[in-house]
Amino acid sequence: MKASEVAEGIFRLSANIGSDMLFEGIWPLPHGASMNSYLVKGRDVAIIDGVCDWDGVPETLYAQFDQLGVKAENIRYVVINHTEPDHTGWLRSFSSMTRDFEVLITAKGLELAKAFYDLDVPCRVVKSGDSVDLGNGKKLVFEETPNVHWPDTMVTFEPSTGTLMCCDAFGTFGAVDQALYDDQLDETRLDFFEREALRYYANIVGRFSMAVDKAIAKVRALDVRIVAPGHGPVWRRDPDRIVNLYERLASYAKGPARPLVTVLWGSMYGNTQKTVTPLLEGIADEGVETVAYQVPQSHIGDILASAWESTGIALAMPTYEFQMFPPMAAILDELGRKHVKGKLAVRTGSFGWSGGAQRELDEIVQRQKMNWRFLDPVEFRGAPGTDDLKLVRQRGRELARQVRETALA
Ligand code: FEO
Predict the structure, then answer these.
(1) Which residue in 50, 244, 270, 362 is a FRET match for 35, CA 20 to 30 A apart?
(2) 230 lines ligand 1 (CB under 6 A)
(3) Which residues, in sequence order, are CB contacts of 141 under 8 Å at separation 6+?
(4) Cα of 32 to ligand 1 centre, how many Å?
């Protein structure tokens, strides 16, 4: 990949990681992801954010230094907006090439950087409103945006070009090719990155939606003309597009979202599975869209993205040894941890010699403070009868009507 000019004196350096990697060791990347750094050239040179230390990734960055005619020892400042190792792993190899630079970082970031790395270089703590003059009209202004995504995070703004270098904020999954900027992407590719933004948001940032709202308010107070995140495309034709999308995704944390129902189902011997079709049909009767995921066959990363943008959740799972079908319990627990809250929901399911799934479902929803509003469940012993299946379809219709009334426009 080649270094490219974002705006006068600001350059984008990027490396892709492939679909064989799990982000944070958890989240699948079917379309890869990019790690973006930015080099700002005034009289002094600064690099804002970096890349992970996975095989070949720092080397890709160093090759792009060469393309720009910049040597490691020319870099005066290393700005760490966020200490997570996907942006800082490269520092180990970089500091073996030169030690003649100063790190600019928040107080919390410094604490974390010391825990992750043995950084024996000068570090300067910066806070909101602080700035560094690079000379030749280039300046870096810092604004703390804690908890987007870790408590250390800040954004770096370059006023002469209006470039916001914002690390995880406004990022997306999805590897980039030679089209690195929104002005080089057609509507199909923009849609692709917006879908990748949803998965990234739900998997990585969603839990911190209140912090995202606060960060957006700070960003809107700046004269931002280019949004340059740590992952995904740079937005310079229409920077509001990604900021507005993030604002919308953050609003889903309250519960109401798209007029969509995510149907999660798992079945041991096909009895609970018999309720899935009438559930889907009942929801469709009211003209509401559904997406269905079988558990445990589906990955939590995809389920989380779908649940995040859904107003309704329908669960079909049996009782298993006095409790909930175990993989569904794990999914629900993760939805709770990631703050999928305020959803409208219904549950169907079979039991054999005893119930228990509903008790565990209630316990998880309460413990995780999920605040889901449930319709009456449809539970049956063994196989569902005709009346059970009719009732399931009716519950599907009831859920869909509530979703339609509650969903955001
Ligand atoms: Fe891209 Fe939270 O690191």
Answers:
(1) 244
(2) yes
(3) 129, 130, 131, 156, 157, 158, 159
(4) 15
Q: Is 82 in the pocket of ligand 1 (CB under 6 A)?
A: yes
Distance 248 CA to ligand 1 centre (A): 20
pLDDT in tens, 2-18: 999 999 999 999 999 98
| Nearest CA among 239, 353, 352, 351 for reference residue 361 | 351
Beta bridge partners of 12: 4, 38
Mean pLDDT score across all residues of the chain:
97
Q: Quote the ligand 1 centre to 51 CA distance (angstroms).
A: 10
Q: How far is the CA of 153 from the centre of ligand 1 (A)?
A: 9
158 lines ligand 1 (CB under 6 A): no
**Helix axes of 386-406 and 276-285: crossing angle, nearest 10 degrees:** 40
Ligand 1, closest atom to CA 231? 1
C-alpha–C-alpha distance, residues 126 and 81, integer Å = 10
Q: Catalogue all structural domains in the chain, each as residue range(s) with its CATH number.
A: 4-253 (3.60.15.10), 260-400 (3.40.50.360)
Nearest-CA residue for ligand 1 atom 1 is: 168
Distance in angstroms (rounded) separating the CA atoms of residues 254 and 341: 6
Q: What is the pLDDT of residues 263-299, one digit of tens each?
A: 999 999 999 999 999 999 999 999 999 999 999 999 9
User: How do beta strands 319-320 and 323-324 pair?
Assistant: antiparallel
- Cβ 41 under 6 angstroms from ligand 1: no
The one-letter amino acid at 80: I
Residue 242 confidence (pLDDT):
98
Report, as an integer, the average pLDDT of 176-182.
92
State whether residue 50 is helix, strand or coil: coil
Query: What is the distance in A from the centroid of ligand 1 to the CA of 256?
Result: 27
Question: Average pLDDT, stretch 205-234?
Answer: 98
Instruction: Please report the atom of ligand 1 found closest to the CA of residue 149.
Output: 2
Q: Cis ω on the peptide bond leading into residue 296 (within 30° of 0)?
A: yes
Give the tens place of pLDDT for each residue, 50-95: 999 998 999 999 999 999 999 999 999 999 999 999 999 999 999 9
- The protein residue with its alpha carbon nearest to ligand 1, atom 3, reads 84
| 296-335 as b/e: b if 16+ CB within 10 A | eebbbbbbbbbbbbbbbbbbbbbbbeebbbebbbebbebb
